[in-house]
Each structure stands twice: as C-alpha cells, then as structure tokens.
Specification:
InterPro entries: Beta-lactam-related, Beta-lactam/transpept-like, Diverse_Enzym_Activities
GO molecular function: hydrolase activity
Radius of gyration: 22 Å
CATH class of one domain: Alpha Beta
Organism: Marinicauda algicola
CATH superfamily of one domain: DD-peptidase/beta-lactamase superfamily
Keywords: Hydrolase
CATH architecture of one domain: 3-Layer(aba) Sandwich
Protein name: Class C beta-lactamase-related serine hydrolase
Length: 491
C-alpha cells in the first residue's frame, strides 16, 4: 500500500510539472495571476458593467496565455474570487459603491460596508457638429476614427472608446460594443496623471508642496535616514531612487505589490534605496503609490474622507462624475494604476491643462503655470524606443515620436493602449481607451490623423512603427516599445 501511495504522489508531481511548464505558469508568480483575475473582473464587472466573460476575454486572459484556463473567477453579490485549479492561491476582490474594487488579503481591518456613491449622475457632453464642420476636414476626421477602431493583422487592438475635443468642444466620439459615453473605463497608468493633478490642486490650496518630505515612517527612516530626503516631486517624476523593479512579467516586485500586498505604500517604502534621491530616473508604479500616500497624509482622513477630498478638489469641479478612484486594503488611494472614468471624463481632465487649471464654471483646480510644471522634462527621464524617444515630465509623458508639429504634446499613458493626448498648440484633446494586447494600439497614429484633419495639407499616417502595446513578459517598464510573449501580467 505504501508503494502505491508513493507512486501516486510521484505521478501527481510529474503531472503537475507538465501543467506548470506547458501552460506558461512557470513564467507567472501564481498569486499575481489569481490576483489580477479577481481584481480586474471585479472592477470591470461592477464598475464598468462588462460581463465577467467579456472582462476576462478582453483584459485578462490574453495576459495569462494558456494558463488562463486553469485560473477561475467566481462572481458573488459584491465580490469576485479567483484561484488556480479550483483551490490554490485564492484571491478575493470586494466591490464597494463609489469606491470600486479592492483586493482583500488580510481582511481583519477592512470595512466592506463603506460606500461613497456619487450624488450627481454622469454629465454627457453634446456634440458640436457646427464647430466640427467649420474646423475639420470631416471625412479625414471620420477616417482617423475608423482606423482607430480597425483591427491590425492578427487582431488584438480592441479599441473601446475615442473622444476628441477641440477648443473645449466635443467634435467626435465613438464607442465599441457594450460601451456608452457613461461607461467608466480603466486608465491603468493614466491614473499617474490624476495623482499629479491632485498634487497641483493641493499645492494651489496650500495643503502640501512639491518639496514636501514624502516618507515619514519612523521605522523606515531609522533603517535608511536618506529616505527622508525623498520629496513628493521626486516620486511624481520617478526619481526617488528606490529599487522598485517593474518588468511586467508577473514575478517582479511591482506585480507583487499590486496584486499581493495589503498596504502597497508601506511595502514600497521598505524597498532599498539604490540611488541618491533626484539623481536617477526609472519608471516605477510604486513611486506614485507613495506619492498618493504622502498626499493623503496631508488630508484630514480617514480614507473615505480622503476620497471625498479628491472629488471636491478635482472630480467635481471638472464634472468628472463617472470617476472611480480605487484603494488598496490599507486605504491608500491607488494613484499609479486604479482609476476608472468615462472617456469624456478623461478628456475633461485633459482639457483642464489647456485651460490653465480652470474648470468650465471658473473654479480653479490647480494654480497658474502648473501645466508648465508637468510638461517640464525630468532630467534623465527619456525612454528610448524603436520609433523615437519619449520624455517624462511630472506624471505625464511628453511629445510625439514622428510628427514634429506635435512635439509639444503632453499625454497620459497607460497599459493596454490607454492614452489621453493634450495638444496646446492646437487646443486639442484626443482620448483613446481599449484593451490592446500584443498589437499596435494605433494611438499615436490616431493623434497624428486627427491633427491632420485640422490641417488638410498634412498627409494621414497608417501607423507609427515601434509603438505597439507591449507583451508584459518582455518589459522592464509599462509602456516599453516591444512585443513579447503572451504570458505575463501588466502593472
């Protein structure tokens, strides 16, 4: 009998090893795989309104590759649970009205009853057809959007929303199946631009300064006193000097922070300091998480009041009533990756930078000149790409890889092809949201072609080569300009 038991155990181990290697699971930190599944399905279902099946098919399963069939997602009344093979590495994400979804790892101090519903509905913009017809070559504008929604050879672009504002007027919009003007869509790292905007709002109110010390935990500072030199601006410009590796392969520390840590800011603050603050640029989401934690520390708290303060300072004045800004289990606003908003509301935030921080009703969201601060190139903050270099400012990317006339562009950028372009010289905002996986997302071509529709003497472009949405397993950072294998997870 003992021999039979031993033989069965050996056979089980061999079978498990075959599954582990042939499905790509060996490339993924397994709790991260179940974590992203629970979190994304929860938010995309309860916040965006997708069916769980569509949420997985568009946003999650392409990242897991063949391993996806071994990862389950079970939807409850206000939660999504995920595990591997039915019982391993279980993860749970909980939905709270107005707060969104949160991965709950511990749960002892997590209040599932909290909510903060919006007291005003989404305010839809009205298409200004007269302005569109006077300012644009309408056939060229339509063709630009047609191209954005077309699929490249092999598919994978999955454009879900395009919105174009010119001189503050809505001149074009289009949505994919099941998406409406009111649908909150995931911005991924466009959330970092919200964090910068919140900083601008708080600086304008005198609640914080960009030079404020960002890490104040006594135990952290006792271990590494030099971390006390890290400022809010260092974090927003990605020059804090912490080792927060971000490779997008599901095994890297940043993936573990997003999908396995209850207190992301505390985890990030404990990472080693490997460069003097302000001397080395490296794009890492953990820095923006620390930035939002520092801003929350300057607000009255607790978390629900902090979230209300963000609405009061940014969302409400800009009429961004679809916006959902999610938190981690410890209550830190997840300023690197977890904001959802309708495409029109993402455009409204972009328009504020064309209007020097003024909301449509005249309310000042951030101070005069803050738009110039975010557009100032961070020393060392250049990412080299096949189509050209891109520069980083303060929470925003800068420039266009191929159109010189668009070199003054400032934009929010996020994983899976999220972009909100702000073009001061043309008084133009172009937003594209989708779920692009291992394909050309078409966003830079979209901007170039919308701009060309304003300037009929310019030729349209079919694609901006070298700016495909990446394969996570290959990348050191989120928006790198390469395509990799389909196993891996985004940051």
């Amino acid at each position: 009998m003992k021999r039979i038991v031993v033989l069965l155990l050996v056979l089980a181990l061999v079978a498990g090893g075959v599954i582990f290697t042939r499905t790509g699971l060996h490339r993924i930190y397994l709790p991260t795989a179940t974590g992203i599944t629970a979190k994304q399905v929860c938010s995309l279902h309860f916040v965006s309104g997708f069916t769980p099946q569509r949420a997985r098919a568009l946003y999650v399963d392409p990242l897991l590759g063949d391993a996806a069939r071994l990862v389950s997602a079970t939807v409850g009344e206000n939660e999504v649970r995920s595990n591997l093979l039915g019982f391993l590495y279980g993860q749970r994400a909980v939905f709270r009205e107005g707060i969104g979804c949160t991965l709950v790892h511990d749960g002892r101090d997590f209040d599932e009853t909290l909510s903060l519903p919006w007291d005003r509905p989404f305010e839809a913009m009205t298409l200004d057809a007269a302005h569109r017809d006077a300012a644009f070559d309408t056939h060229a504008l339509e063709a630009a959007i047609d191209q954005a929604f077309s699929e490249p050879e092999g598919g994978g672009r999955n454009t879900l929303a395009v919105v174009v504002l010119h001189e503050g007027r809505l001149v074009a919009e289009r949505y994919g199946d099941g998406v409406t003007p009111a649908t909150p869509l995931h911005g991924w790292s466009m959330t970092k631009s919200l964090a910068a905007t919140l900083a601008g709002a708080m600086v304008h109110r005198g609640e914080i300064t960009l030079q404020a010390r960002a890490i104040t935990d006594e135990e952290v500072l006792e271990e590494t006193p030099q971390k006390g030199e890290i400022t809010l601006e260092h974090l927003l410009r990605m020059t804090a000097g912490l080792r927060l590796d971000e490779r997008n392969d599901g095994t890297d520390p940043n993936s573990q922070m997003l999908f396995t840590q209850s207190d992301m800011a505390a985890w990030a603050a404990r990472q080693p300091l490997v460069h003097e603050p302000g001397t080395h640029w490296q794009y890492m989401s953990g820095q923006t998480v620390l930035a939002t934690r520092a801003m929350q520390d300057a607000l009255p708290g607790p978390m629900i009041e902090d979230l209300a303060a963000v609405r009061e300072r940014v969302f409400a004045p800009l009429a961004m009533h679809s916006a959902i800004f999610e938190t981690d289990e410890a209550g830190t606003l997840q300023g690197s990756s977890y904001m959802y908003a309708a495409a029109q509301d993402w455009a409204r935030m972009g328009q504020a930078y064309l209007d020097d921080g003024l909301a449509p009703d005249g309310t000042r969201v951030f101070g005069p000149g803050f738009d110039e601060i975010v557009a100032t190139h961070t020393v060392g903050g250049t990412r080299e790409g096949a189509a050209g270099d891109r520069d980083y400012g303060l929470g925003f990317w800068l420039g266009h890889p191929s159109v010189e006339a668009l070199s003054g562009t400032v934009y929010m950028g996020g994983f899976q092809g999220q972009r909100a372009f702000i073009v001061p010289d043309a008084d133009l905002v172009v937003v594209r949201l989708g779920a692009t996986n291992f394909a050309d997302d078409g966003t830079f071509a979209l901007l170039a072609n919308v701009f060309a529709a304003l300037h009929p003497q310019m030729d349209p472009v079919e694609a901006v080569e070298g700016f495909e949405t990446p394969g996570p397993a290959d990348l050191p950072v989120e928006d790198e300009d390469t395509v990799g294998e389909p196993e891996g997870l985004p940051q």
